[in-house]
Write a structure and sequence with these properties.
This protein has about 575 residues and is an alpha/beta fold. It contains 16 helices and 27 strands. The longest helix is centred in the middle third of the chain and has 31 residues. About 50% of the residues are buried.
Length: about 575
């Protein structure tokens, strides 16, 4: 990669993309213009204050680039993921309107408050919520500044969620209320309820982070819009994410997937590895496209409606702590700072790579000292280093095999999958991340496939954030017998002429509402690449006669990358 000079920058037009990735060990930043990487920064992540590392990375990449040239800033951050995984979230109340049927209370991350009221599967109000009941509940939630409300069939008619949320605001005036139908427009009450609850728990944390990053960017004279990466590989405006921060979970792994897509998307079945300082994130690919998690992402073991790549994280990275337990070498999942080769206090995987000259970072003598500390009397430091890397690669390989076994055991729903489906057999491994050069080839060797570590691999996540396509989605469901349609993500219930509605009408209306949502979120230009995700049409029969149809369609701005990226290695990176 080549850094451009200040004189070269002055000749460029406005169109540069700034991508920032906040990892567990490093915060990376890149500036991309017309598919070329112009500047790179890699700064230690400041765990106590993520903003410090972000600011340092931005300042570094802008040393020779005028802020006015930046067209867009996109960020992948661990702030939501870490808050949820580490349990550092805010207490939030969960109000459910489940109606009759299965009791899901024990399947939720918190004990919910059950409210009366019921919308049936057709979107008809069967019984109305009780305002006094809601008032009594919120009196018990005085310590919660954020709440979530979820109704079982709110995606068919969001009126009761909206009514209860209004009563809550009127009675209690919390800082934020998340409604389940606005988080997800698809059926599956449990996933929507979990999504709404987790969204409420991280809302205030994300507000503070968003305000800080907005100010930091503005203070540096950057007037470009700010975006944040989503778990499905798209981006959304930071201002929109302030309402649905749960969408910003798992953005680090998503950024690495997009980085691979931009630099070296595999044409065959493949595995990509993002081997960072703390973890290795694994994704599966088929025909140049990453596989998505069936149903949605899981947060702390609970299923949600957040659309996400199918990812697996393993506690193995360059900074993974290496020690002996009962005489055996153990790698990770803990991390106690940088490698000894870089001044750290404990042996790490990176020390093993440095000693075997698989990386040039750090002092060779200190890396050798780290491995000698672990050596048995009959071992050399190099022997220990090879053993350490073999164990680390084995842990990653086993996680891949577990993913492949899970994929093979997944239920098949389509006849074409039964007829044409084939077992997933990766043909290659693609490695990105700071430790990919040392570990990815060893993992590939264990799997018996070739390995590619593309140029720019060390900052693939920041590249992925920079070039991610803005995306959003809506779900439209129409009941022609009753003469109305709903768009739950937008809180819309609209009547129409019963005799003049078809699936084509639904798609046309959905496209219009998607354009409206995109425009309101600052993504009007992105609607040129819409993608139909789902459609369903079936008859409503009464007394042996067809009296109408239920029509459902789901439309999104397609996630992916805006451009492909070429990068050339240089001594400076």
């Amino acid at each position: 990669m080549r850094f451009i000079t200040e004189s070269e920058v002055k000749g460029e037009g406005n169109g540069m993309l700034l991508g920032i990735d906040v990892g567990g060990t490093f915060t990376d930043a890149v500036v991309v213009d017309n598919g070329k990487i112009l500047a790179i920064a890699k700064k230690p992540t400041t765990q106590g204050n993520l903003l410090n590392g972000i600011v340092e990375a931005i300042d570094k990449v802008l040393e020779h680039i005028a802020p006015a040239h930046i067209q867009r800033v996109a960020l992948s951050t661990t702030v939501v993921t870490n808050s949820l995984v580490e349990g550092k979230t805010e207490a939030a109340g969960l109000l459910l309107i489940p109606g009759p049927g299965m009791n899901i209370a024990g399947l939720l991350p918190v004990e919910p408050f059950i409210l009366s009221g019921y919308i049936d599967h057709r979107g008809r109000e069967v019984s109305r919520p009780n305002k006094r009941e809601v008032e009594n509940v919120v009196q018990q939630l005085k310590g919660c500044r954020t709440l979530a409300v979820a109704g079982k069939f709110a995606v068919r008619n969001p009126a009761q969620e909206q009514l209860v949320a209004g009563w809550v605001r009127e009675t209690y005036a919390p800082e934020h209320v998340t409604m389940g139908a606005q988080v997800s427009g698809t059926l599956n009450f449990l996933r929507r309820a979990n999504s709404a609850y987790f969204n409420a728990t991280v809302w205030r944390i994300f507000q503070m982070f968003a305000a800080a990053i907005t100010k930091a960017v503005a203070d540096r004279g950057i007037k470009a819009p700010l975006y944040i990466l989503k778990a499905d590989g798209g981006t959304m405006p930071l201002s929109h994410a302030e309402d649905v921060p749960v969408e910003a979970i798992f953005t680090g792994p998503a950024a690495s997937v997009l980085g691979v897509m931009a630099m070296a998307a595999p044409e065959s079945q493949a595995v990509s590895l993002d081997i960072g300082g703390t973890t290795t994130d694994i994704a599966l690919w088929e025909n140049g496209v990453p596989l998505f998690a069936p149903g949605g992402a899981r947060i702390n073991g609970f299923p949600t409606a957040v659309r996400s790549f199918w990812l697996r994280s393993v506690g193995v990275g360059g900074d993974s702590y290496v020690r002996r337990e009962n005489g055996q070498i153990v790698v990770g999942p803990m991390r106690f700072g940088p490698a000894m080769a870089l001044g750290g206090a404990q042996p790490t995987v990176s020390d093993a790579m440095r000693l075997l000259e698989l990386t040039q970072y750090g002092e060779f003598e200190l890396a050798e000292l780290a491995m000698q500390r672990l050596a048995n009397p009959n071992q050399t430091a190099a022997d220990v280093a090879r053993e350490v890397l073999g164990i680390a690669a084995g842990l990653i390989s086993q996680a891949i095999r577990d993913m492949l076994a899970e994929q093979a055991a997944a239920p098949v729903y389509k006849v074409e999958d039964i007829v044409y489906g084939r077992e997933f057999q990766p043909q290659m491994v693609l490695g990105v991340g700071g430790a990919a050069g040392g570990l990815a080839p060893m993992v590939a060797a264990e799997l018996g496939v070739p390995c590619i570590v593309p140029p720019g691999a060390m900052v693939a996540n920041a590249i992925g954030a920079a070039i991610a396509r803005p995306t959003t989605e809506i779900t439209l469901r129409a009941d022609t017998a009753q003469g109305y349609y709903t768009v739950p993500e937008l809180g819309i219930k609209q009547e129409f002429d019963k005799g003049k509605f078809s699936l084509d009408t639904a798609w046309t209306l959905a496209a219009g509402h998607l354009r409206e949502r995109a425009a309101a979120s600052g993504m009007a230009e992105a609607v040129a690449d819409m993608e139909r995700l789902y459609e369903e049409e079936f008859n409503v029969v009464r007394g042996f006669y067809t009296v109408g149809k239920i029509i459902t369609c789901k439309l999104q701005i397609k996630p992916g990358v805006l451009i492909t990226v070429t990068a050339k290695e240089s001594a400076g990176v």
